[in-house]
Amino acid sequence: MAAERRRYPRVPLRSRCWCEAEGITLYAKLINASEGGVFIGTYAPLRTGSPAKVRFTLDDPGQEVAADAIVVWVREAAADPRSSPGMGLRFTAIDSASSDALKGFVAKQFSAAAGHA
């Protein structure tokens, strides 16, 4: 089994997000999120190393998260037919309100999952 390299735990987040980079704006599916970044499902990923701005809303109404990020990895469509194509972004700057909202959301999801175990 491969060692877990993630710094922060991820939780599924099946919503949409805005991602602005390289002079374009993507409205794409947000697959999962953590305190450190997000995975965005798309067949048109940005290049690794591209700076981006992401914005999305958590399940609780009015909790918007906005952050600067960088594309750290890309999964092409043909790479693994069992996995969604897309790109992993690491947050490079996030305001305290967005960070607090995301931390609270992740903690709530893990708490709920522990209650169902």
Explain how this protein is built:
The longest helix has 21 residues, at 96-116. The protein is an alpha+beta fold. The protein has a single domain, classed as Thrombin, subunit H (Beta Barrel). It has one helix spanning 96-116; strands spanning 11-21, 24-33, 37-41, 51-57, 64-75, 86-94. It is built from one helix and six strands. It has a six-stranded antiparallel β-barrel.
Distance between the termini: 23 Å
In the CATH scheme, the class would be Mainly Beta
Q: What proportion strand?
A: over 45%
CATH-derived topology? Thrombin, subunit H
Characterize the largest beta sheet: strand count, sense, and whether it forms a barrel. 6 strands, antiparallel, barrel
Q: C-alpha Rg, in Å?
A: 14 Å
CATH superfamily: predicted glycosyltransferase like domains
* Structural class estimated from helices and strands: alpha+beta
Shape: globular
Number of strands: 6
Element-level helix/strand string = EEEEEEH
Kindly give the count of domains.
Answer: 1
CATH architecture descriptor: Beta Barrel
| Average pLDDT figure | 87
Bin the helical content. Answer: 10-25%
Q: Which residues form runs of ≥5 with pLDDT under 50? A: none
Strand order of the largest sheet: 1-2-3-6-5-4
Count of runs of 4 or more consecutive helical residues: 1
Task: Please give the oligomerization state of what you see.
Answer: single chain
